[in-house]
Amino acid sequence: MIFWLYLIFIVLTLFFYFIRRNYKSSKELDFIPTVSFFKYISILLSNGGQNEIQKLIHESDPNKIGLVKVSSVVHTIPKYELLPKTPASIFFGKGMIVSNGDYWRRQRNIASTAFNRALRPDMVAECTNEFIMLLNKWTDIPIDVLSLTKRLTIQILGKLAFSYDMKALDSLEEQPYFLEIYNKILQHIFNRPLLSMAFPFLNSLPLKRNIEFSSLIKEFDNFIYKMIEQRRLEMSKAKNENENTDLLAGILDSANYEKIITQIRSLEIIYIILYYLAKYPDVQKKAREEVINVLGSASNLPTSENLKNLKYLTAIIMESLRLYPPASVLVNRKPTKPLNLSSNITIPKGAKISVNFWQIHRNPDIWNDANKFIPERFINPTKETKTSWIPFSIGPRNCIGQNFSMMGQKVVIALTLLNFEILLPPNAQHLDEIPLTKSLLLHPKKIDLIFSKLK
C-alpha cells in the first residue's frame, strides 16, 4: 500500500513539474490574467462541460481586457511541426488547419472547388426526404436528436462525396458502420487521459488504448478507400467525367480526413436549430409560415434561388450558431512579429494565440442581451454584428464548408418544418444553456426531441 502511495506521489509530482516547466508563459505576458489550471481540472474531474469552462474563462478576465492565459495542456495546440504524436495529429495528419504556405494554398483550392461543386440543394433534399420517412416511423416519442443529425449528415456525405448509400437512415435500431467507427475515433481524440496530455510520448507506446485507436484508424481507412475505389470505377465508366459534381473530385486527388470531418461537423450542428425551434414554438410557427410561403409544399424541392428568400429561417440559424458555434475556439497561431492589439497591449512574437468564438459571440459590448436567443437581431444586422459573427471563422482561412453548411441547414430545417411540429418532451427542463461535453467541438450531453406529424 505504501509503495503505491509513493508511486502516485511521484507521478503527480512529475506531472505538475512538466506542466510548470513546459507551459509557463513569457514574462511579457504577465499583464494578462490567467485561467486557473486547478479550477479547470476540477471542472473536468467533476464531469463538467464547455458551459462551465467558458464561464471560468469569462470570470478570469475581471477587468475585461479581452485576453486571458489558458494552460496549453488543455486548451491550445503547440506549433504543428513540433507537436508530439497525439490521437488528433495521427488521425488528421498535416491538413489545412495546421499547414501553411504553398501546401495550404494547394489544399485550400482543391477543397474549395470540391465544396462549391457540392452546393446541390436537390441532393440534400433527397437525403432529407429519407430522414423524414424515418421520422414518420418514430413520431410522438422522444428521440436523441444528435444521433439523428449525425445519421442524416453521414447519409448526405455518402451521397455527395462518394455516391454511396451509408444505410444511415434505414433504421434507428442499428448503428451505421461508418458512424460507429467515427464516434469511437472522436472519443479517443477528445477524451484523452490527463496523463497522456502531460506526457505525449505515452501516445506512441504499445498501450491498449493506442493499439485500439490504431485499429480503428485502419478500419476507417479501409472503409473510405473502398468507397473511393468504387467511385473511381464508376467515374471511369461515365461518358463525361467532367460533369461529375460530387465532392469526390476534390477528395480523390488530395484525400485527407479534414474535408470529411468538416462536412460532417458542418451539418451535425443542425441539432442546435431543432432544439431552439422546439423551445420557442412562436419562432417555429413563424419559420414554418415563411417556408410555406416560399416553398409552397413539401413536394417542391428547394433551389438555390428560393433558399435565399428564407430570411427568417436564415436568422434563426445564424442566432443558433452565435450561441453555439461548431467549435468553441480556433486552433492557435503564432505571430511572426509583435502584434499590437491596442496602444497598451502587445502580444510578443511566438506567443500561442487562440480566438475564442464563444466569448466573442456572447460579449455584451457587442450583442444586446448576449445570452438570449433573439433571431431578429440578424434580420437587419449592424456592421459590428456582421463582423463579430464568426462561427466558421473569418478571412482567408475560414471554414471551407460554410456555404455548404448554410445551404444544407436551410434545406433540412425547411423540409422538416413542412412535415413535423418539433416539441420538447413533456418532462424536459427548459434549460437556459444546452448541457455540453468538455470537447472543444461543441457536443450536447443529450437532447431528446419529439417530432409530431402536422395535421
TrEMBL record:
Pfam families reported for this sequence: p450 (PF00067)
Names of required cofactors: heme
InterPro entries per the UniProt record, alphabetical: Cyt_P450, Cyt_P450_CS, Cyt_P450_E_grp-I, Cyt_P450_sf, Cytochrome_P450_Monoox
Keywords: Heme, Iron, Membrane, Metal-binding, Monooxygenase, Oxidoreductase, Transmembrane, Transmembrane helix
Binding residues annotated for heme, in chain numbering: C399
Protein name (database record): Cytochrome P450
GO MF annotations in UniProt: heme binding; iron ion binding; monooxygenase activity; oxidoreductase activity, acting on paired donors, with incorporation or reduction of molecular oxygen
Native organism: Gigaspora rosea
Bilayer-spanning residue ranges: 6-23
Presence of keyword Heme: yes
Annotated family: Belongs to the cytochrome P450 family.
